[in-house]
Sequence to fold (273 residues):
Amino acid sequence: MEGIPREYIDAVEHLKSKTGFAPEIGLVLGSGLGGLSELFEVKGKTKYSEIPNFPVSTVKGHPGELVYGEKEGKRIAVLAGRFHYYEGYSMKEITFPIRVLALWGVKKLIITNAAGGVNPRFRPGDIMLIEDHINLLPENPLRGPNIDAFGPRFPSLHDVYSRELRGKAEEAALKAGVSLRRGVYVALQGPDLETPAEYSFVRTIGGDAVGMSTVPEVIVANHMGVKVLGFSIITNLANPYSPRPTTHEEVLEVAGVATEKLMRVIDELLKII
Ligand code: HPA
Fold:
């Protein structure tokens, strides 16, 4: 762990000694997707507040916890509770758990989120395999002095959502009988949902879905050589002609229902990755 800042080492050492566990796959749960952790044979849970230097959620009822367990012989660590830029967290705080997972041994990361569908063919409840992203957040998590022990100054993002893992996800979806959408995720800071003109803009620049998370974590995972797979649950039609406004309640409800489909895909996926 030479060159790794102490705060990260302390968190990893704590997890290693407290859990005796060594994960190989990480899973980040998006808004309304908590049901996904039912997929595993849970070995244990640790509240974020017990892990040294971990950020702690300020949202009541969502304290955030790290759940670890097994499925299909794979060892998995789940981040149940993520941090968003719009909440006021720094990019360092948002990505701290991802760096800790990577240092703990995670080599593959599955990231999920709830997103608005700007592609007119998408419907609420669809699952989109993220093929690529466009980062419109106002700050980059790699800004500032580079920590060479984590990764290079100018990391390549040419395989940002691993082609190999995407192939496996397609295979898994086929087996699970779930049809996947594919597309580009655009990250905006929020927390307001987009204006009609902004939805048009996101579509014009090549976006299929829009959300407020994921991209910082994905950049940091790539920086550390962790392979990434991303799924967006399309919770609402994010288009300028939408007859009704989108509400956060609707987003959570649709995400909750679609979780079951995504669970079936991840269930199959874990057999082959
Ligand atoms: N915009 C931004 N983020 C979102 C949306 C949306 O329409 N739906 C779910 N997350």
Notes: The mean pLDDT is 92. Strands lie at 25-29, 41-47, 65-71, 74-80, 108-117, 127-135, 180-187, 209-211, 227-237.
